[in-house]
Structure formats: C-alpha cells, structure tokens
C-alpha cells in the first residue's frame, strides 16, 4: 500500500530538509538575540533618572574578545559563555518585582534556547573540545566581568536602581554578542 512507502520516505525527507537551509540556520542566533534584547528593553518602564547616581563602569573586557585573530570557533565559545553568564545572572538573583515577570521568564527561556542552539552548533566543531588559549583567556575575562556585576548588585543590596543599571549593561552585552555572532554565521 501507499502508507508504508510514505513511512519509508519520511526519514529521507527529514534528512534532506535538515541538509537544506533550515539546518544551516543552526548557528544563526540573530532572531533570538533580537527578541532577547527587545524583552530586556521592555521588562522595565522605570525611569533611569533616579538611578544615575548608581551608574558604574563594569569594565567590559572588549579588548580580550576582539581582533582579527579571533577565530570563528572562539567567537562561538565567547558568545556561549556570555549567554550562560547572563542566564545565571537573571535566574539566580532576585530581580525587582516591578519588572514584568512574564517578560523576564520569556527572556530566560529564550536564553536557554539560544544556549541549546549554540551547543548544537558547537558540537559540530571539532575545536570546541579543545578551545584555543585566546578563547580561554576571553572566558576568564568574562567570568571576572560578570563576577564584578554580581558583586555590584550584592554591594547595592540588589536595589531597584542597581538592577536597572545592570539591565542597561546587559543590553550593551547583547549588542556585542550580536556583533560577535556575525563572525560565525555561515
């Protein structure tokens, strides 16, 4: 009959579909990053004016992650580390109750999906098993950077203004991630 024939063709069709454009988008994070950035912007309607006194320079380690010598695989490892640190920051600390909690949850879900997508993309790269010294140095610089953000929040006792300053800083991170992720688009 016709039904067993279609059952046989289904796996073949899926393999062909996966080898086409759909699966080649596996490393393209642009849409998810735009959605995450948008959610981060919309989570709070609080004016930053009262928080200007709380601004600080978190010393984003831009120099450690730029340059022509940065390889495609290194860029993926760096973006993965940044997304992981952002996810941890927003999931392990009590964000202000005044933030839109639904959007915060959507942001966390989006970050988790991006991390999974990037891990699948990294799994295709042999070098992910043995990251370069450059990407290891960049990961260490990022861990120190995010540790500084956590210390800032703790020092400000997780005040609303401290979170607003942090939210603005993380928006800057997303802009950098977007720029860096262009290095590994196919």
TrEMBL record:
SMART domains (UniProt xref): IFabd
One of the GO biological process terms: defense response to virus
Superkingdom assignment: Eukaryota
GO molecular-function terms, A-Z: cytokine activity; cytokine receptor binding
Compartments, as annotated in UniProt: Secreted
Keyword terms: Antiviral defense, Cytokine, Disulfide bond, Secreted, Signal
Gene3D superfamilies linked: 1.20.1250.10
This protein's record includes keyword Disulfide bond: yes
GO cellular component labels: extracellular space
Disulfide bond listed as a keyword: yes
Pfam families reported for this sequence: Interferon (PF00143)
Segment forming the signal sequence: 1-20
Primary location group: secreted
Protein name from the UniProt record: Uncharacterized protein
UniProt source species: Vombatus ursinus (Common wombat)
């Amino acid at each position: 009959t016709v039904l067993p024939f279609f059952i046989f063709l289904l796996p073949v069709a899926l393999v062909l579909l996966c080898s086409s454009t759909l699966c080649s988008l596996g490393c393209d994070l642009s849409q998810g990053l735009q959605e995450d950035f948008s959610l981060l912007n919309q989570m709070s309607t609080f004016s930053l004016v009262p928080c200007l006194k709380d601004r600080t320079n978190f010393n984003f380690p831009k120099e450690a992650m730029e340059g022509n010598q940065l390889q495609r695989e290194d860029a993926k490892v760096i973006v993965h580390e940044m997304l992981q640190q952002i996810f941890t920051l927003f999931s392990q600390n009590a964000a202000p109750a005044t933030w839109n909690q639904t959007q915060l949850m959507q942001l966390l879900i989006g970050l988790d999906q991006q991390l999974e997508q990037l891990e699948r993309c990294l799994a295709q790269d042999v070098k992910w098993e043995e990251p370069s010294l450059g990407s290891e140095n960049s990961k260490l610089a990022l861990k120190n950077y995010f540790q500084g953000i956590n210390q800032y929040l703790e020092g400000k006792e997780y005040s609303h203004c401290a979170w607003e300053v942090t939210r603005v800083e993380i928006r800057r991170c997303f802009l950098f991630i977007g720029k860096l992720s262009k290095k590994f688009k196919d």
